[in-house]
Amino acid sequence: MIEPLDGVTRYALFTSDGKRFVWGSPDSGIAVEEDSIAVMRAGRWTHAAFADIVSVTLNTAMIGRSSVAQCIVVLGNGNKIVTSNANANGFVDGSRNRDFEDFVVALHRQLVASGAAKSIAFHSGYSSGRMNMLMLALIAGVALFLVLPLGLLLVTGDIKALGIIVAGCFLLWPAWQVANANKPSSYSPERPPNLFA
Fold this sequence. Notes:
Layout: E1 10-16, E2 28-32, E3 36-41, E4 44-49, E5 53-63, E6 66-75, E7 80-84, H1 97-114, E8 121-124, H2 128-156, H3 160-181, E9 185-186
Parallel strand pairs: 5-8
Antiparallel strand pairs: 1-2, 1-7, 2-3, 3-4, 5-6, 6-7, 8-9
């Protein structure tokens, strides 16, 4: 097992390979080295050279009232390093937000300093396909929870439809916030977006 270099900050963030759904993430540990990322995988440190990085994507999601921030590093061989501010079970308690922000800043700073950033695509938000699916779900939600009850209210005059409209607003608002915060775009590695703003 090759440990990260001495003097390199190790971040107690949970990581995954992004290939499969897991109930819990046993892999905790990531570090930014001079020319690579060191990642804990199955109890062993592995290294991904900056030269192998194709893209870096930053995005968020909502779990309840908490924002889950993700940094997805895609390598040339198709492998991914997915890091977030969530705990081992995928929930956010706020205790890893500072480490996540520090990791994102350190990664971008080192990618720029090493010159590797010139050949890497930097994206924020969801992919176009994922955003299209989210927008379709929002349209269906608006039709089901707002338009249909409004039509029922107008046709039948039953005031109970207002309750469905109010509940629909509470259900759709978080999804709208996620969609609004994750519009697909590019960013400069010198100024990565703040996912907690």
